[in-house]
Amino acid sequence: GTPPIIQTIRAALAFWVKEYIGYELIERQEHIYVEKALNRLLQNKNIKVLGNTSAKRQAIVSFLIYSTTNSYATDLKNECDNDSREGKEEGLYMWGETGNKRDKPLHGAFVAALLNDLFGIQARGGCACAGPYGHSLLKVDEINSIAYRSAIKKGYVGVKPGWTRISFPYYMSNEEFEFILAALEFIATYGQRFLTLYHFDLRTGSWSAREKAILCLITNKNSNVPALPLANGIKGTKVDNKQPKDRKTAEAKPNGMVTKFEMSLKTAIEIAHLLPKFPPQRRLQEELDLNLLYFRV
């Protein structure tokens, strides 16, 4: 048959670009990105970066984003009040709401879905290939491990715990880098509110947007949201895009990408404010103990 000529040429060009730029420059830029990301994410009390954060690493970060309850915790509030906000003049920052108690983490695949649906950011959510290391990272003991295995054998793959992973390649712009961090901080603050807009399939572990709930939110007469990014992926949905006419013009300007990112974050915040701050725990139709789940549903 015909050999994959085009694919071979594209692969060769990718290696040529790497040779032209040089691995030293690539390593240096990725080190800058991952160090900045760690310094910022480690300050967020709703984000837990997995793995050794002091050892040299590639520009890849695996993390958990925790949900919160409305149980007031004085000590947590004091910690938040004492947290310095100095030295943060550059970049887009989102900070968590104070006075809340940290609860179970959000499902890794759910966080990845929000990054994609709200901001167009691609991430990976779920379990790593190295199961024993995953047990160690998440502190899964033998009893829970056996319980997970038993549930999976019954067809409930969705009980598998996991996390979200994102990378910071050397070729991304500083604006894109700042936008990704701001998106992560947004989900750390508002992510759990979007649980009501998604359906969770316990048998596959996948999350899908609930069309009726989203359409209800869009058509709300009291809603002034410019556009709902979640609706773009719904087949057959006709959404009146109320974005400003000059948006494309703004994106074409020197700071156009920054303007686009800021508008995306602003829209996401407006959507979040239409949703319940502490969504109720959903009921699972399957006969499975909800306490077995490592994550919030």
From TrEMBL:
Gene3D superfamilies listed in its UniProt record: Aspartate Aminotransferase, domain 1 (3.90.1150.10)
Superkingdom to which the source organism belongs: Eukaryota
InterPro entries assigned to the protein according to its UniProt record, in alphabetical order: PyrdxlP-dep_Trfase, PyrdxlP-dep_Trfase_small
GO molecular function: transferase activity
Keywords: Pyridoxal phosphate, Transferase
Residues that span the membrane, as ranges: none
PANTHER family reported for this sequence: CYSTEINE DESULFURASE (PTHR43586), CYSTEINE DESULFURASE 1, CHLOROPLASTIC (PTHR43586:SF8)
Protein name stated in the entry: Pyridoxal phosphate-dependent transferase
